[in-house]
Specification:
By secondary structure, the chain is mostly helical. It has two helices and no strands.
Length: 88
């Protein structure tokens, strides 16, 4: 009885298989992931930052209007008395 060995080259158990398809799949996976990551960041910015920023801007505009009104009233003499007379 003669035993013939299979002489085809096989990778050992621990060695990873590297082929062109796995490399392109990995790169397309990473590009899809980076695209999804950028889209998520954009949407989360729209949901979190922009409403807050808009309310901050309106609050800041209100503060500036209040400060201008206070400065205008400080310019008048006895403004509290004039305001009181205007309400009665």
């Amino acid at each position: 009885m003669s035993t013939t060995k299979n002489m085809t080259a096989r990778p050992s158990i621990g060695s990873p298989r590297v082929s062109d398809t796995s490399i392109s799949t990995t790169s397309s996976r990473s590009s899809r992931f980076s695209l999804a990551s950028r889209e998520f960041k954009r949407q989360s910015k729209q949901l979190l930052v922009e409403p807050w920023y808009g309310s901050y801007r309106s609050w800041l505009a209100q503060v500036e209007r209040d400060e201008q009104a206070i400065k205008a009233q400080k310019g008048r003499k006895n403004s509290w008395l004039a305001d009181l007379k205007g309400t009665c």
